[in-house]
What we know:
The first copy, chain A, is 30% helix and 20% strand. By secondary structure, chain A is an alpha/beta fold.
Amino acid sequence: MSSKIKVAVVGASGYSGRELLRLLLLHPNAQLVGVTSRAAAGKPLTTEFPRFRGVAAADALTFITPDIDKIVATGAEVAILALPHGVAHEFASALLEAGLRVIDLSADFRLRDASVYAEYYGHEHPSPELLDEAVYALPEIKGDVIKGSRLIACPGCYPTSVLVPLVPLLRAALLTEEAISVSSMSGVSGAGRKESVPFLFCECNESVRSYSVPKHRHISEIGQELDLAAGRKVRFSFVTHLIPVNQGICTTIFTSLRAGVSLADVERVYAEAYAHRPFVRLLGRNNSPDTKNVTGTNFIDVGWSLDERAGSLILMSTEDNLVKGAAGQAVQNLNIICGFEETAGLMVL
Amino acid sequence: MSSKIKVAVVGASGYSGRELLRLLLLHPNAQLVGVTSRAAAGKPLTTEFPRFRGVAAADALTFITPDIDKIVATGAEVAILALPHGVAHEFASALLEAGLRVIDLSADFRLRDASVYAEYYGHEHPSPELLDEAVYALPEIKGDVIKGSRLIACPGCYPTSVLVPLVPLLRAALLTEEAISVSSMSGVSGAGRKESVPFLFCECNESVRSYSVPKHRHISEIGQELDLAAGRKVRFSFVTHLIPVNQGICTTIFTSLRAGVSLADVERVYAEAYAHRPFVRLLGRNNSPDTKNVTGTNFIDVGWSLDERAGSLILMSTEDNLVKGAAGQAVQNLNIICGFEETAGLMVL
Amino acid sequence: MSSKIKVAVVGASGYSGRELLRLLLLHPNAQLVGVTSRAAAGKPLTTEFPRFRGVAAADALTFITPDIDKIVATGAEVAILALPHGVAHEFASALLEAGLRVIDLSADFRLRDASVYAEYYGHEHPSPELLDEAVYALPEIKGDVIKGSRLIACPGCYPTSVLVPLVPLLRAALLTEEAISVSSMSGVSGAGRKESVPFLFCECNESVRSYSVPKHRHISEIGQELDLAAGRKVRFSFVTHLIPVNQGICTTIFTSLRAGVSLADVERVYAEAYAHRPFVRLLGRNNSPDTKNVTGTNFIDVGWSLDERAGSLILMSTEDNLVKGAAGQAVQNLNIICGFEETAGLMVL
Amino acid sequence: MSSKIKVAVVGASGYSGRELLRLLLLHPNAQLVGVTSRAAAGKPLTTEFPRFRGVAAADALTFITPDIDKIVATGAEVAILALPHGVAHEFASALLEAGLRVIDLSADFRLRDASVYAEYYGHEHPSPELLDEAVYALPEIKGDVIKGSRLIACPGCYPTSVLVPLVPLLRAALLTEEAISVSSMSGVSGAGRKESVPFLFCECNESVRSYSVPKHRHISEIGQELDLAAGRKVRFSFVTHLIPVNQGICTTIFTSLRAGVSLADVERVYAEAYAHRPFVRLLGRNNSPDTKNVTGTNFIDVGWSLDERAGSLILMSTEDNLVKGAAGQAVQNLNIICGFEETAGLMVL
């Protein structure tokens, strides 16, 4: 392919930004034309990320300040935003206006209801006029709707790990209406790359702890999408835990099957939904996924088990929070909106 | 106290054994008179555990083979067994006959019903005649019944973390009969100190995974004790996860309050049950416990939270699987049966 | 002993401070009467360090601001300073004046020559008049000189691990004058408990790196003490590495024996120097020490090996940087100046 | 390229084997036609390594037993051996005879002198007749000699990290004849993927220790190549340390410059030797390499520093022990002998 799509990464010095660079530097159909960082502006990319040194595309790049004009001047056709929520929307708005397509990793465009945003993020939604246009872009459950969009809201890391196992079962009405319990464990990169005592090595190493109980922000988007899939209000609890690994989310879900529904029904629904989705790996009955099999990749592994004694269905998933939960999903969406192979640049091990 | 109780540790070269040594070597009322290890017999204790070198009581000890006669010959009045299930019962039986009191860390005497043992452990119970005599010795919920016993079955590591938060609430009938969901995470020492590929450093580091789904062995004793507390059959699911830390269990429990019961009721019941129990630390509403605050200690930390949106009560606990979940609990029971201060030798940080 | 020495810890919210609390809360001859923290003033000790909750002495303490008057008002007879260099000297000076004895963990009083301090710490020494009075208090090599002192400078963590193996050999003139090479590896707690990107979990986990090459600050005190021991200028290089563990230093030293000196001579000198020192454990020929055997303890383990092929003597030591390298050494010095058993409160495992 | 070279990996279930698979499954010019494993024979590749599931080339492969006939029957043109030393030579010999080219990761063909092999590996060399033919294939220092060879001995992981920094300086005669001191730190994967207590998670985590002091086996090949580069016997000591990371070697070397040689000379020599070598990254003066920047890649990062105070030159390198130290180097050699781009399939991040 002689011409590649020109891409800018806005907010490239965090962990999601770093993963975007890792994937885009070697992407066969994309050319990284701009990388921004307020703190590192003017520095070579490889000063901040020495890991990329020696890769020609990386050696050629220097961070620029995150100014709209400068981003537009790079010639980028698509901007991927790896910015904090509450900051991303401004860039999205201006870049759309400048004619770029925007793939946003923040929470700013995930919720359809601005009042839910206000409840969970603590301030009014700053650009509610864009919410209608934005697509909640989880490719495995949203399908073709993503293709034509120019404002892509990538799902959160935890929600991806919860929605992939649950949505097909809710759509097929296999589950009872009892409250669903979700226990998720995430690596520390989920907390971002910023100065902070609680995320120092010595505070996280040899430590396991739950946090943000009972109202983690990701509940808002999980709820939105579960309700949509079920066509009713879905009751669920969601508890997150911080685990001493760099990358990886492991999610365990406790739910229950409606009378007359068997595990074979679950397996049939999963096969229909995911057998041809390249990044969902169905592990089969009583097989536990392991984060170490997905870190660095865009795969999400899903296992399941019927606890007949308790009458519970247990769903288990693992993914890399920075890849399928962030940067990889963004590149997958880039591939979709640009008409590339969905797996382009993402079959990395 | 001029005379100390004489204690032998049978099976002292594993991780629970090591923790027993750590606690007993410095215990003000106990004297370690014998340590057994089939593999290390004849070797100084400090060859196997160089950490203890320089501690006079440790420098004086040499491993002996685990023969009943040799154990009896040490003059031990109490034997603490840190042996695999299916092996412990033989020693227990013979040592009781020889007049020693026995504190057992294995699963051999935890279940009152031999058929449940057979179901979960895969072979007939080898000494069913001892089951009536054995006490399921979780001091915080069993109280005085432990005191007079000569055969102490210490609860499993996971069950301790599940029962301490749940039992008082079930006894007080605060919970609905909906299925309870339990998600537990354990450090790797729970797998024991034996040759094995799945527990190599490189297999566990940077990995989070569930295992033994849906029927972990500890379900048997958790079920026994929950039923007993509730006075009915309690439905629950239990999923365990392996986490890359050496020691520590973090348990998160999803349950629900009966109509009319408030979080204040939960707190009143907890206060009544545990305010004067030296090793239960009640963290208060919406406070998450962290394994790093309990590792190496005999404390179990308990937090709780009401998820009003979902109608769920979330209970959270952390403990050290090798201490409160094994060796520390054994020493606590030693203190109880010997009439020492319950905290003797256990206020370590 | 009915009366205990009253101790204040100034700067108690860092990692060395935390270890001081851990040791002093359970010390048989010391009473912790004051703990200061600028950031946590007014908060209960157990809010900052939930690990200590449930220990009566800890539950009773609240952080105070680090004001001289407030510290004096606690009735403390000894103040232990766990403050940054450049800050400690002011407190030391004022507290000495108020009649307290001072044990300082910072670098402020370790160097006898104020110009060396200026060279390595980048500013003039602020209280040069106190340098003569201060004692470089490494008990294993300084012996009785510590006893009568009222201003104790505790050695740095790395220097302790380098000096214990080297000083007796230099004193006995067993080594050649070739440059000594020292390679040290430290856990991340050595970097302190402060907001910082380079010491975030994800920056240190799965990472090994040297740092501060070629001129680490600790070279100044190592050089001072090596020269003193040898009675000549000792040439040495010192490279430090950051390793993903919480606590522990492992030091490997390459040197060479003078003609006619044998490994037996080394062993005789070590035995004379350390056989009766309770915290030095001599592991013997070709035995490598392991940080996991010393973490949490005040022990320093020393092994050695002769590489006949290369003509090199290899010395190896491990210690806990926060204990023998900081808080434990401070308590050991407290014991010495107060006339307690040298091991009082320090035989922890 | 329509036709790819057909490659078999013999001994594919260990860690080096796994990395070979990772690289070869996505290699643009190679086709993986056979993978052997005694233990996993008959099982799909993805059963042993679930990480590779979903990659078409992996889903198609099943382990075969390591029989010469079966390997030949795969049609492989090149065999890469990831077998233990003492086992590899038999396969090498038979496969060469069958007309394959052989790239060996073991120590069997690294030493030119069979008596040195016997000294360091504890048994006579089993195929001394092949030693003349074998090439010690460190591409950065051996250059064109590799190209025409049919028996490639890949250097050990540690030796690669030592030789890349030292060989050019020895060749240029910049260093004195004083003993060189080498301190290396390796991740645990270096110990292999086999049942073992010392490499269990809990034995390695929170532990740093030296091992195999003073005579690590890799001394034999390091010595061979240093002597060759210097044209004289080079004296050096080599101490290895085990560090709790999965992958990565960090090596720190203490040596000294001959009178009149400056750091600029060192830099000129490095630039001449490595400026055009795609996998050596020269970090510049006083810059420390970090294993986290090379893990998973085939890069080796080199930094240096002059310690004028001690008169020492400090060289520092990092690499991934399984990639540049094993599988990556093998693929690099595959590229060289097949006439592919040297970086083909190796520009992974």
